[in-house]
Amino acid sequence: MSEPKKLLCLISRGCHDRAQSSNQSKAQHWFITRKVPHTVIDGMDPDQREVRNKLFNLSGVRGNYPQFFFEFEDGTIHFMGNFEKVEDLNETTGLPAEVLAQHPDLETWDKMFGSVVESFD
Q1: Measured by CB atoms within 10 angstroms of the end CB, which terminus of the chain is less buried, N or C?
Q2: Phi/psi of residue 35, each to 5°?
Q3: Nearest in space to 86 (alpha carbons), one of 29, 39, 3, 12
Q4: Which helix (H) or strand (E) holds 100?
């Protein structure tokens, strides 16, 4: 298992783009259903503007939601990907064990989110 990390979800509650809004809802539903702890950062919230801008700088993408990041215990944050990345990982959930055994380097939901923690306490 990889080192513990927190999942940060950058969304926008004021997003008027239907596709982005739908993607935000789907991703959050997957995380909640699979009990993956995550922290939501609302890009529209003025109190979270500084964090949002830091995350935009890390991803290199502004104004496209949702975006996902991992925060590690030492405080470093890494861009994990956008909705398409999470959707691809979601599609690995039902793969048969034989397929996974034949492709050990395949990124899967469990490999990516198995070490996510709610806090480092």
Answers
A1: C
A2: 55, 40
A3: 29
A4: helix 97-102
Question: Which stretch of DSSP H or E encloses residue 5?
Answer: strand 5-11
**Pairing mode, strands 5-11 and 39-42:** parallel
What values do phi and psi take at 73, rounded to 5? -60, -30
pLDDT tens track of the chain, all 121 residues?
A: 579 999 999 999 988 889 999 999 999 999 999 999 999 999 999 999 999 999 999 999 998 999 999 999 999 999 999 999 999 999 998 899 899 999 999 999 999 999 999 999 8
Give dist(CA 40, CA 19) in Å, integer.
19
Tell me if residue 120 falls in helix, strand or coil.
coil
Instruction: Examine residue 66 and say whether the peptide bond preceding it is cis (omega within 30 degrees of 0).
Output: yes
Torsion of CA 55, 61, 16, 85, to 10 degrees: -90
Q: Report the distance separating Cα 65 and Cα 53, nearest Å.
A: 13
User: CA geometry: angle at 10 spanning 86 and 14, to 5°?
Assistant: 115
